[in-house]
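Chapter review: from sequence to fold.
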Amino acid sequence: MDGSPASDSQGRERQGLALAFASAAAFGTNIVSAQIAGHAGLSGPLLVFYRVLIMLGLVALAALLMRAPLGLSRNERRSVLLFGIATALVGTAYLSSVSYVPVSVAAVIFYTFPVVIVLAEPLLTPAPFRADRLAVALLAFVGIALVVGPDWHGLDPRGLALAALASLSAAVQFFAAAGCARIATVPKLFWSHVVILPVTLVILAVTRGVLPPSAFALAPVAIAITFGGYFIGFLLQILALARIAPGPAGLAFCAEPVFAVLIAALFLGERLGTLQYAGCGLVMAALATNVILEQYRRRPAVA
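The C-alpha cell string follows.
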C-alpha cells in the first residue's frame, strides 16, 4: 500500500468483500440451524423477534461499556429507519415463506435480490450500469438454482409472495445500508434494532406465534447457533456495507446458500448430487469473476 487515496480505497473494498463473504458464511450457518429449530416447532417470526431483542440488549451493553455516543442527526435517522424496516421485513418474510413453500423455492426467489440490486444501482446511485456485473449476477443465480434444486409443484401463492417481498426488502436493505455508511457502527446497530424490534413484534402478534423463552428448550443447540450466526453475520454485514457498494456486496452474499448447503452436508449428513456440486462451482466461479472484475476496474490507468 502506498498510502494514496486510491490505494486506501482499494484496501477498504478488499476488506469489504472479505467481510461480506464471512457474513455470508455466518448467515449460511444460521439458515441450517433455523431450519432445525423450525422442525422443533419454533416459527421464523419467533426466532427473528428474540434474536433482535437479544442483539439490542448486547449492543446497549456494549455502548454503555464503550461509552459510545448514540445520537443521530435528522438525515441519519431517516437512513437508519429505512434500513431497520427493510431488515425486519427480510428476516420475517424469508423465514415465514418456508411455512408455505419448500426452502429451496424460497431461496431461489429470495436470491434474485443481487440481480435487482445490479439493475437498480444505476438508478439509485452514481454508479453506471455494468453489463458484466449483471452477467455475473445471473450466472450466480443459475448456480444457486442448481444448488438448492427447487421443487415447483403445488406451490402456495402466500409463500411465493413472502419470498418475493424478502428479495425486494433485501435490495432496499443494501441501498439503505450504503446511505448509513458514515454512521458509526454502534449507534447504527443500536437504532436499527430499535426499529426492527417493534416491527417483528407486530408480525409475531399477527401470526399468533408468541411463545415464552422457555420454548427454546425444544432445540437449545440450534437456537444458540441461530442467534450466534445472526449476531456475527449482521455485524459483519454492517461493516462490509460501510466499505463496498451495494452491487458487489449483493453478489458476495450469493455465497450464503452455498455455505448453507455445504454445512448441511457436513453436519447433518445431507447428500449432494452432481447438479448441486456443479451449482456450487458455478456460484464460486461467478464470485471469483466479480472479485477480479472489481480489482480490474480499480486498477490505475497507465499513461
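Two observations follow directly from the output. The mean pLDDT is 85. The chain has twelve helices and no strands.
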